[in-house]
Amino acid sequence: MPRQRKFALIERKVTKKSCNFASELRKLLILKTFEELGVCEGIRRAIEEMGFVQPMPVQEEVIPYLLGNKNDVIALAQTGTGKTAAFGIPVLQRIASKPRPQMGEIGRGLPHALILAPTRELCLQIADDLRDFSKYLDGIHIEAVYGGASIEQQIRALRKGVQVIVATPGRLIDLMKRGVARLDDVYNVVLDEADEMLNMGFSESIDEILAGVPEDRNTLLFSATMSREIERIAKGYLHDPKEIVVGSRNEGAEHVNHIYYLVHAKDKYLALKRIVDYYPKIYAIIFCRTKVETQEIADKLIRDGYNAESLHGDLSQQQRDLTMQKFRSHLTQLLVATDVAARGLDVDDLTHVINYGLPDDIENYTHRSGRTGRAGKKGTSISIIHTREKFKVKRIEKEIGKEFVDGTLPSPHEICTKQLYKAIDEIEKIDVDEEQIAPFMTDINRHFEYFDKEDIIKKIVSLTFGRFLDYYADAPEIEKPVDRRSERAKERAPQPPKGGGARERGGERAWERKNSRTTEKGFKKLFINLGKADGFYPGEVMQYINKHVRGRVEVGHIDLLNTISYIEVPERDAQLVMRCLDGTTYKGRKVRCNLEESGREKARERGSERTKGRRRDEMDGFEPFEKKSKRKNSRPAPFRDNGKKNDWRQFFQNNNKELKGEIPDFSEEGWARRRPKK
Most CB atoms within 10 A, among 191, 289, 468, 523? Predict the structure, then answer.
């Protein structure tokens, strides 16, 4: 082929690709309107008043498809991307286009749409949004039904007739059993935050609810994340669903920065204070693992002068509603909440999400961080972790496709500087009402007659800024834990042997001694006769302690081996934890909990029982040495003392030999005593 012809072909291919690219680019640049999506005038008028100008990506994809008939959808999109409008607008429009609701036996209209949500807060939030969307639609009544509120009031509302029910699964089933919630005419079912509902154990409840809904319904499943388990379950609920993914599966929110601060367990609250102090205009949700921890952290913050409130399942519905109302109105600056309580909360202008420790489930982190950086705004997700949580950071990075910044806590000087500028800025921006203050100026001038300008300024600034100076003048130092071994060294480190035999357990003890660490200052190490073989992992450890120990107990480092575990707790709580855990039952096994020293002895006794009569001395981790020493013609193992080689047997043969120094404490780690033969 002539060279000229080759060049011509290449030119045509390049031109074609360029045109295709330009065409796709034009499609992206041309923003669609709600009218082009097929949204009716009444809903368009309402959403324009709410400030919606252009549809968001998830709405562009979902709304036109849902306006059709018998279209099941699995939609994956990050929180804050407009999912409620994506399913709410087509559901409302389909109801509005239908004839008046059918009349039931008692002359009331039956619902045409059912929306399930995992929490009360999300249920109320969805219902409020739908009421706003349907502001100019006639004859559409929306009712939220959830636990913790008066069921009689909800029964009266349903009997009057509603077109849309927004419900939590538990309360809806209760109303169905009473014959009040009738789902015979429901042709739209929405499962919002479906993954969370299933994680909370609502799978059976959802099956029961969907059994009472017509088979030819439309089922819509919306979530920020979609695991394989959720996909499997979704196939049982949906018929030939279309999967719509906005972004990438399980990715983190686009506009959120991720930072972690590595601290010792005892310094977590001090680190939290520094972070909050460093951001004077912070407006954040602080996530905790348990209800007890949530309340405790909120109480500490309030006691230290911060504008904080708690949100968890132990609060009444009235308390939770009031707390959320205050937080949404910016009357509360910091909301300390559990994952369940804060799931699906839509709060505008949230600047930070603070994880008071990382969750075990990566999906929970995605939901947490998605509370901020909503609607294209910037946000920051901060995690306060200790050394044993560091591995979770890598897992989360891999899953969400985002990198964490290894942060350094701000110094007292940096914090005080920030707070000083905040105080100055507030003074500068104060609007003075001359008429209002004029009658008091004579007395004010008389009081400050003998003060010069500089002194007055100092006093005014100190009034708002003084508490930070007082605290950080003697603030305790927060040391960043240092990894003593590199990641490569960790990979090369010996692993405890697996299995349940005497040899394996002996090796486990040897590994334990070789890789032991110093107990953190102010903490006591406790022994528990449960390990990985019993399914006793960090999450189970925390749950087990919270279940049996009244009040919150801080837990430090956890060493999990195959058959035993060591946990560090504050010295003041050590006796309490031992009393509460010792003698309890875990999966049919009696639990023993002692101080580390006495726990070792009990572990050997327990090991003897498990091996059904095998020699106890084989459980010490020295059995290779013992066996080798009993072979015929074998050389005795050397005993090294002050650099000189001596026969270890000679050391013990001379009983009259005077020993130098104090008699060693054989209960300490690194020593072993043979039991005398009976």
Answer: 191
